[in-house]
Specification:
394 residues, alpha/beta, Rossmann fold, Hypothetical protein af1432, 2 domains, 6-stranded parallel sheet, 21 helices, 6 strands, binds fe (ii) ion
Length: 394
């Protein structure tokens, strides 16, 4: 008879621990294949921003399982609107009559299920359980074994992280090392586990600006994946970078004066130069963004600065190349450079802006000039080679 492992969990969020547990159970019990089953959360949790929805948890698992052999997802139709973990187990047993199923689940979940009257119908199943750090009911688990339930345990060498600790790290915008970066990118795109203020942001922007902001967010995530940046920070800074862009210059100036953002009369009269620093204030005050790196990337997204961080560079370049950008002279060159080097792409973008402003007979911003000088000094020989056809504006 085939031996099939069925891994039931919240997967909230899905992470390497889950893959390692599955692999350990597979090895210990000679399982031919493993099926991953995200289980329903209570209604209140399902709708809370601290948790991911069932479709998001399903997709996280799916992305995390890409490239893993012998591990697959249960069809989505079975988990979508499933009433309970028990009803899922019953359905799976009926679907796999030709196999011996081993249900892999946390000790906590097993005890929760065992306490329900409908558990009677599945008591003869084989269970493989693992202990989460908060599990304290060893006595109850042992009594189930004494009652004759087929329960074995699987353990990892390192202690498992609790779901709650994982979610806390997302809220602090720490790109976790305990999760596949493709899954982090998905979480960032979905805005899962973070307060959803997109509706509020949408109201502050024109349709054109909103679509541009989404484009910058997506491009920032892609660049963070490519260049090893912090995906969650890049995503947030990308989304909010133009939050002040649709205010009038008078409104921006008022905020700039109240917060003593600049003494420069030139900056105080330019929406183009003010919306970055003013945007950082709005992001902090209205959208409760507190991360310094995110706020700096918003603040300097127009001019750049000396010693730009990786997040600064990512958002700066994403702003210049996002797919909704209307074509401008030099756009394709910047896009091509962005595949090779963020610094070269940022420098090329600044040259383009400087050229454009000079062509209108205006003076180029002082901060922009400093960034250009810094980036020129930063390029290595290879990056200079890539830029050799880019003409430096006078
Ligand atoms: Fe902007
Ligand atoms: Fe922008």
């Amino acid at each position: 008879m085939r031996r099939v492992g069925v891994f039931l969990d919240d997967f909230d969020p899905f992470r390497f621990d889950h893959l390692n547990l599955a692999a350990a159970a597979k090895e210990a019990h000679g399982l031919e294949k493993l099926i991953f089953v995200p289980i329903p959360l209570p209604d209140k949790k399902e709708k809370s921003i601290s948790h991911a929805r069932i479709d998001q948890r399903y997709r996280m698992c799916m992305i995390g399982l890409m490239g893993q052999s012998g591990m697959e997802m249960i069809p989505y139709g079975l988990v979508y609107q499933a009433e309970s973990a028990l009803s899922l187990i019953r359905k799976i047993r009926r679907a796999y009559t030709d196999a011996k199923c081993f249900f892999i689940l946390s000790a906590q979940t097993l005890l929760r299920l065992a306490a329900q009257p409908q558990f009677k119908g599945i008591r003869d199943s084989a269970f493989i359980c693992f202990r989460t750090p908060d599990f304290k009911a060893d006595g109850v688990l042992s009594s189930l074994v004494r009652e004759g339930l087929d329960i074995s345990e699987v353990r990892l060498q390192q202690e498992l992280l609790s779901d709650r600790d994982c979610r806390r790290q997302f809220a602090a915008l720490t790109d976790p090392a305990w999760m596949d970066r493709r899954v982090i990118a998905y979480i960032a795109l979905e805005g899962a586990y973070l307060p959803d203020e997109r509706k509020q942001l949408r109201k502050m922007l024109t349709t054109h600006r909103w679509e541009h902001s989404l484009g910058v967010q997506q491009t920032s995530i892609r660049l963070a994946l490519t260049y090893g940046g912090n995906i969650l920070k890049a995503s947030q800074a990308g989304l909010y970078h133009d939050c002040a862009k649709c205010l009038t210059v008078k409104e921006m100036r008022h905020i700039a004066e109240v917060h003593h953002l600049t003494n420069s009369a030139e900056v105080l009269h330019s929406g183009a130069l003010l919306h970055g620093p003013v945007g950082a204030v709005i992001a902090k005050e209205r959208f409760s963004i507190t991360d310094g790196e995110v706020l700096d990337a918003i603040r300097f997204h127009t001019t750049g600065r000396e010693n730009m961080t990786l997040t600064d560079l990512i958002v700066f370049v994403a702003d210049a190349i996002e797919p909704n950008r209307e074509n401008y002279e030099g756009l394709e060159r910047i896009r091509a450079l962005a595949r090779l080097s963020l610094k070269a792409a940022a420098l090329c973008s600044l040259y383009t802006t400087k050229k454009f402003i000079s062509s209108r007979g205006r003076e180029y911003d002082e901060q922009g000039l400093k960034t250009i000088a810094w980036l020129e000094g930063e390029l290595n020989e290879q990056e200079k080679e890539w830029m050799k056809d880019v003409v430096k504006p006078i």
